[in-house]
Description:
Elements: H1 3-7, E1 8-10, E2 16-18, H2 19-37, H3 47-56, H4 74-81, H5 87-97, E3 100-102, E4 108-110, H6 119-130
Helix pairs in contact: 3-6, 5-6
Amino acid sequence: MSGVQLYRGITGNGKTRSMKTRLGKMLAASVAATVLIMPGGAGAADAAAAEALARQESCLKCHAIDKDKSAPSYKKIAAKYKEESGAEELLITHVKAGKSVTLADGDEESHRIIKTNDEKQIRNLIQWILSR
């Protein structure tokens, strides 16, 4: 079998199609399927940027993604607000205002105010939390 025969496939109608074309179509279908199943679809949060901001702002000192620490996990927060309309705006206000919160041990303190003023970064962080 020649190199050309290895590189080319045969379609159902006997015409040849390059491996490159078939791989390109499979890749496009795979990307499309991934976007459709991601929480939030094409508008899904940038997870890497959100987690980096959470670390930078020391959010992960009190919160964890899937287990409670002194504050509820992001998974628990997402479940709490899952069906609530306006949850995103409510949580944005929460991280910007420093409202009083009750910790797991019963103590009350002001929630730490996020330092960044970049609305896009804050919104991305909240979308990421709600997608847990």
